[in-house]
């Protein structure tokens, strides 16, 4: 068939003499696009982004049209040659195209449609402006090399831009160009670009997504109708969280994950409990109605509760544990990391593949609370890594109550904090559940491949206020007008599937009806839920339940075990070159093992660990400088001065011993202590210790102490044997290095929730640590540990005290005083005892007895029997180094008084009340210390 004149012209390309003809054709196009041949029309269409109000194409310069067709002729065979083609203009554009591709990868997220409400508009600047790269629509049909872009080596510019738009600017915004590892970036690029960031889902999978959305919406509506106005921190608006979590479990199980530990705050928690983990609705309803019986403890509100269940997946059963958490939101993040670490070590899983941590954040909390940064910082640290966590942000764009993003952060995204560890971040529109599933798959696979954290920012909205009693329109009128008119995610997706022919018109409604029926029945609604299964990694907490702190516990050692362990902890390989002071310390330990010199604190503490390891219990000790010991006393890690190699005597005590881990922690208190708490609540057969560099540094972890350590058992029934070593003692080092704030811990003590001990001798710390592990009672142990006593000439012990002794909660007078002559009894704890003892001996006072209380809580009631033996005592003194409003005086005074004879009265000797813990002047410290000792011994009255 003969070609038309227009077709012939198009085939021959534009020549200078054809300009007039082109003008004529273009004018026809502008008047009526359908009046010209399709071959011309398609080329002209490429230049017009929009039409006018009459549907006609908007105008464009004719010179641009001419240049465009001229380029077609010039570039027809360029790609067959190299950049030495001689056309510098094209070569420059080729370079710019590669820059444009990189710009899409780096900045495409700023152009993506992420907000379901369409309110959030990002500043896009000109990152993707073609003019910035010397390109225009005239270059659309020109083929350019694509560099590292997935697919063909060369593509027309129009196709390149179309694919990049689909990949980076649709409903997924990917941030990964901040990652320095080129392999990780390439991995993400290929996953995104090979699929154009869109999953290939079978129809039955799409129906499962719709089912998850129907359940998420169904629960919230049911609760709203059944318990109107009740707080539930609804998930509505963030419904896509549920198909996301289901995908994590199912895909994770297929990849070999055996356990998932989930941490989250309030929003959506009830949905997770019922629709993901299989909590029976009838149990939840009972909690709403206030009918749930609590056998012991205070219990907690329903949106703080944890839960555990087993879920069936194609790869086998996955155990899912939802952590209990308080209202302090992000504090649960390091707690679950510690729990995961314990589970990994229990499984001996060095590949970090069998246990997956998943943390769900709020948009204001992830960026506003410092513990998030601390947790990210620990993510790859030796003693704390868990092989990467999946972080999910329920980004409702409001924060907690009335905040706007500009009020809650100084960064573009709430997830920018994750860039500190170069974690990839995937922002996704919550109203596109298929995109949500896609980024979930991507995140899981990245974590499994690279063993590092990954973040999913679920951009959504909150249909109600912060809680259901809150009125959000008062402060967010424009947003909530949009919310009021906006269809639910389930409705949007159901309509999409109906258009695709995946479901018929009645399918979505039938899912909702079926779910309501299940709610009415109150039974489990999770189809792949399984009854909890026992296996080799299941921890039996039964032996630790319903026990008592006074249960008989033998902490002594057999002579053979003592001799063997003492030799092992003091033996150093011949090839190890030690630093001079450390070498002297190890030589002294050999002498202590042989009974040549008394045992100091470091030896007794190390012996405690050695014996616990030898008995089959793991020991985990972490803190700042814990390997060496802040005060140079421990040296559990020995460093070769020539090679830098390390040797741990405690990992060489016996052939079948348990592992010993000592970690010099990151410079954090809150996250590290929370991590150790999570570990301890998961592993009862491990002695888990957190040591503060100075005791007052625990201030930085107060939320962990208040909301987990002191009250976790009472609120949630969570047993925990965590030990806190808090250096405490007044040495003239100023306000910030004296007090571990003993008074705060004593104030938190009630109902035998924890122990507070102040050991004063090496043998005491030996038996105290052994008791903590051997005794089946699991409660936190807070230790006011010493500083100067670590090398005090009077604070020593001998082998017999370790071999045959026990932890004494009260230590009676040690000098051979005639009890009938004693008229004054001084009660005390800790270092001040030795100041009192030396001064009494110097003054030759034989009528003053000094009794040490080594455990201040649970308070030793038999102190009364000890005091009763001093029948002529009339004066009773409590002596402490701390100011009067601090220390044990106000918290324990009633216990002291109850231990005295009927007509006895306890008096105070110590520093005056003070706003600061201690003076910063050494001379004043000495003066104060002398005065309180003299007052306690009655010397100031003589």
TrEMBL record:
Cofactor needs: thiamine diphosphate
Top EC category: oxidoreductase
Record-annotated Transketolase-like pyrimidine-binding domain positions: 599-792
Top-level taxon in the UniProt lineage: Bacteria
SUPFAM superfamilies referenced in this protein's UniProt entry, alphabetically: Thiamin diphosphate-binding fold (THDP-binding) (SSF52518)
EC number: 1.2.4.2
A GO BP annotation: tricarboxylic acid cycle
Keyword terms: Glycolysis, Oxidoreductase, Thiamine pyrophosphate
Catalytic function, reaction form: N(6)-[(R)-lipoyl]-L-lysyl-[protein] + 2-oxoglutarate + H(+) = N(6)-[(R)-S(8)-succinyldihydrolipoyl]-L-lysyl-[protein] + CO2
Gene Ontology MF: a single term: thiamine pyrophosphate binding
InterPro entries: 2-oxogl_dehyd_N (IPR032106), 2oxoglutarate_DH_E1 (IPR011603), DH_E1 (IPR001017), KGD_C_sf (IPR042179), ODO-1/KGD_C (IPR031717), THDP-binding (IPR029061), Transketolase-like_Pyr-bd (IPR005475)
Pfam families assigned: 2-oxogl_dehyd_N, E1_dh, OxoGdeHyase_C, Transket_pyr
Gene Ontology CC annotation, any one: cytosol
Subunit structure: Homodimer. Part of the 2-oxoglutarate dehydrogenase (OGDH) complex composed of E1 (2-oxoglutarate dehydrogenase), E2 (dihydrolipoamide succinyltransferase) and E3 (dihydrolipoamide dehydrogenase); the complex contains multiple copies of the three enzymatic components (E1, E2 and E3).
Similarity field: Belongs to the alpha-ketoglutarate dehydrogenase family.
Primary role: E1 component of the 2-oxoglutarate dehydrogenase (OGDH) complex which catalyzes the decarboxylation of 2-oxoglutarate, the first step in the conversion of 2-oxoglutarate to succinyl-CoA and CO(2).
Name this protein carries in UniProt: 2-oxoglutarate dehydrogenase E1 component
């Amino acid at each position: 068939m003969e070609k038309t004149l227009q077709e012939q012209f198009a085939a021959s390309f534009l020549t200078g003499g054809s300009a007039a003809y082109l003008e004529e054709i273009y004018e026809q196009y502008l008047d009526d696009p359908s009046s010209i041949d399709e071959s011309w029309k398609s080329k002209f269409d490429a230049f017009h982004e929009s039409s006018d109000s009459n549907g006609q194409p908007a105008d464009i310069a004719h010179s641009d049209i001419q240049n465009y067709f001229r380029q077609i002729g010039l570039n027809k065979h360029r790609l067959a040659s190299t950049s030495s083609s001689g056309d510098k203009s094209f070569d420059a554009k080729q370079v710019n195209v590669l820059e444009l591709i990189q710009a899409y990868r780096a900045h495409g997220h700023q152009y993506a449609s992420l907000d379901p409400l369409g309110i959030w508009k990002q500043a896009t600047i000109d990152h993707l402006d073609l003019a910035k790269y010397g390109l225009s629509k005239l270059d659309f049909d020109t083929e350019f090399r694509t560099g590292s872009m997935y697919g063909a080596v060369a593509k027309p510019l129009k196709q390149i831009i179309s694919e990049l738009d689909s990949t980076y600017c649709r409903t997924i915004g990917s941030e990964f160009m901040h990652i320095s590892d080129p392999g990780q970036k390439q991995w993400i690029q290929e996953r995104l670009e090979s699929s154009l960031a869109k999953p290939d889902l079978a129809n039955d999978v799409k129906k499962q997504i719709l089912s998850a959305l129907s359940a998420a919406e169904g629960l919230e509506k049911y609760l709203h109708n059944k318990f109107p106005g009740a707080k539930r921190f609804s998930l509505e608006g963030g419904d896509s969280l549920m198909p996301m979590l289901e995908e994590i479990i199912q895909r994770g199980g297929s990849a070999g994950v055996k356990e998932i530990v989930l941490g989250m705050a309030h929003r959506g928690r009830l949905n997770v409990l019922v629709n993901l983990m299989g909590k029976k609705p009838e149990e939840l309803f009972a909690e709403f109605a206030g009918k749930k019986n609590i056998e012991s403890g205070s219990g907690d509100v329903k949106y703080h509760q944890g839960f555990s269940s087993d879920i069936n997946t194609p790869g086998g059963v996955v155990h899912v544990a939802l952590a209990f958490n308080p209202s302090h939101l992000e504090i649960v993040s390091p707690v679950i990391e510690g729990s995961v670490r314990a589970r990994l070590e229990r499984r001996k899983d060095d590949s970090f593949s069998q246990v997956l941590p998943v943390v769900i954040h709020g948009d204001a909390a992830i960026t506003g609370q410092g513990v998030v940064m601390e947790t990210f910082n620990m993510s790859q640290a030796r003693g704390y890594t868990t092989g990467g966590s999946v972080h999910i942000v329920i980004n409702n764009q409001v924060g907690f109550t009335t905040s706007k993003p500009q009020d809650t952060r100084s960064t573009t995204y709430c997830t920018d904090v994750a860039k500190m560890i170069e974690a990839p971040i995937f922002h996704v529109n919550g109203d596109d559940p298929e995109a949500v599933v896609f980024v979930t798959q991507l995140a899981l696979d990245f974590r499994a491949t690279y063993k590092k954290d990954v973040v999913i920012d679920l951009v959504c909205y909150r249909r109600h206020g912060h809680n259901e009693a809150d009125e959000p329109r008062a402060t967010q009128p424009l947003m909530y007008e949009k919310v009021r008119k906006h269809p639910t995610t389930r409705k949007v997706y159901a309509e999409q599937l109906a258009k695709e022919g995946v479901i018929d018109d009645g399918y979505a409604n039938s899912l909702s009806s079926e779910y309501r029926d299940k709610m009415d029945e109150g039974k489990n609604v999770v189809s792949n839920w399984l009854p909890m299964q026992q296996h080799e990694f299941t921890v039996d907490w039964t032996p630790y339940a319903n026990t008592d702190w006074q249960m008989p516990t033998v902490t002594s050692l057999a002579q053979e075990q003592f001799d063997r362990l003492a030799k092992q902890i003091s033996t150093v390989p011949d090839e190890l070159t030690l630093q001079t002071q450390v070498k002297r310390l190890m030589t002294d330990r050999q002498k202590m093992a042989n009974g040549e010199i008394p045992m100091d604190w470091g030896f007794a503490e190390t012996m405690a660990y050695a014996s616990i390891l030898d008995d089959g219990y793991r020991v985990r000790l972490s803190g700042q400088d814990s390997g060496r010991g802040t005060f140079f006393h421990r040296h559990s890690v020995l460093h070769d001065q020539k090679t830098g190699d390390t040797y741990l005597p405690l990992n060489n005590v016996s052939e079948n011993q348990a592992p010993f881990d000592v970690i010099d922690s990151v410079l954090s208190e809150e996250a590290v202590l929370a991590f150790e708490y999570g570990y301890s609540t998961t592993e009862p057969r491990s002695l888990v210790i957190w040591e503060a560099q100075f005791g007052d540094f625990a201030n930085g972890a107060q939320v962990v102490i208040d909301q987990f350590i002191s009250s976790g058992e009472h609120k949630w029934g969570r047993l925990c044997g965590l030990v806190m070593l808090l250096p405490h003692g007044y040495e003239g080092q100023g306000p910030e290095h004296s007090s571990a704030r003993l008074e705060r811990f004593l104030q938190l003590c009630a109902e035998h929730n924890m122990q507070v001990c102040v050991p004063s001798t090496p043998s005491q710390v030996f038996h105290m640590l052994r008791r903590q592990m051997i005794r089946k009672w699991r409660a936190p142990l807070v230790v006011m540990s010493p500083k100067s006593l670590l090398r005090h000439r009077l604070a020593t012990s001998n082998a017999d005290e370790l071999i045959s002794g026990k932890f004494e909660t009260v230590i009676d007078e040690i000098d051979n005083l005639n009890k009938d002559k004693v008229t004054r009894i001084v009660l005390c704890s800790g270092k001040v005892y030795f100041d009192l003892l030396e001064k009494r001996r110097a003054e030759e006072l034989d009528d003053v007895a000094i009794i040490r209380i080594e455990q201040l809580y649970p308070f030793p009631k038999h102190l009364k029997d000890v005091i009763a033996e001093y029948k002529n005592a009339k004066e009773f003194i409590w002596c402490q180094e701390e100011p009067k409003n601090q220390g044990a005086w106000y918290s324990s005074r009633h216990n002291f008084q109850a231990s005295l004879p009927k007509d006895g009265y306890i008096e105070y000797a110590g520093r005056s009340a003070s706003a600061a813990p201690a003076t910063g002047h050494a001379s004043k410290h000495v003066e104060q210390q002398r005065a309180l000792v003299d007052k306690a011994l009655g010397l100031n009255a003589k």
